[in-house]
Amino acid sequence: MAKYLVQIILVGVQVVGRAFTRALRQEFAASRATADARGQARSQSAAASRISGISLQEAQQILNVSKLSPEEIQKNYDHLFKVNDKSVGGSFYLQSKVVRAKERLDEELRIEAQTQSAKEQGQKPET
Predict the structure, then answer these.
(1) Residue ranges of the chain whose pLDDT lies below 70
(2) Beta carbons of 33 and 122 less than 8 angstroms apart
(3) Which residue, among 121, 52, 67, has the nearest Cα to 44 in the 3D structure?
(4) What are the transmembrane regions (predicted)?
(5) How far apart are CA 35 and CA 46, in angstroms?
(6) What are the extents of the domains in the chain?
(7) Which residue intervals of 1-124 are DSSP H helices?
(8) Among 11, 20, 36, 95, which residue's beta carbon has the most beta carbons within 10 A?
């Protein structure tokens, strides 16, 4: 009787050990994918800053937005673009800065959406 009890315990420990190992491997793979996505997003963001000639922080300051909300960005862009229109006494230079800031923030939103979709695809359970 004791022999069978020991065998049942050993089989149970093996099953739990295999399940734990599999879960650990999946967690490492998910962590690695997330880290790769973050690294790619940072490099894309830095590349966007180099291409546009304006940093993300500067673009946020120009359009007076604290977080990347498409509605807030569009609202502030429309207002600042109209205010700086040359026909109403505004400055073409400032209007140009507003356009560049919006382009930079739109690019950052695109990068975030791309990163989010990659993250969601990477976290789907394996079947």
Answers:
(1) 34-42, 44-52, 122-127
(2) yes
(3) 52
(4) none
(5) 16
(6) 2-122
(7) 2-52, 56-63, 70-83, 92-122
(8) 95
Tell me how far apart the alpha carbons of residues 2 and 62 are, in angstroms, rounded to a whole number: 77
Alpha-carbon Rg for the chain, nearest whole angstrom, is 26
| 109 in Cβ contact with 68 (< 8 Å) | yes
Q: Which residue has the tokens 């190992």?
A: 21
CB 95 within 8 A of CB 35: no
Rounded-to-integer distance, Cα 29 and Cα 117, Å: 17
Q: Which amino acid is at 94?
A: L
The model's pLDDT over 82-99, given as tens digits with 9 standing for 90+, comes to: 999 889 888 899 999 999
Q: What is the CATH number of domain 2-122?
A: 1.10.287.110
- Supply the pLDDT for residue 127: 41
Please report the pLDDT score of residue 80 as a whole number.
94
Tokens 């230079």 sit on residue: 93
Instruction: Give pLDDT, residue 42.
Output: 65
Burial of 120 (0-12, 13-18, 19+ CB in 10 A): exposed
How much is the pTM? 0.58
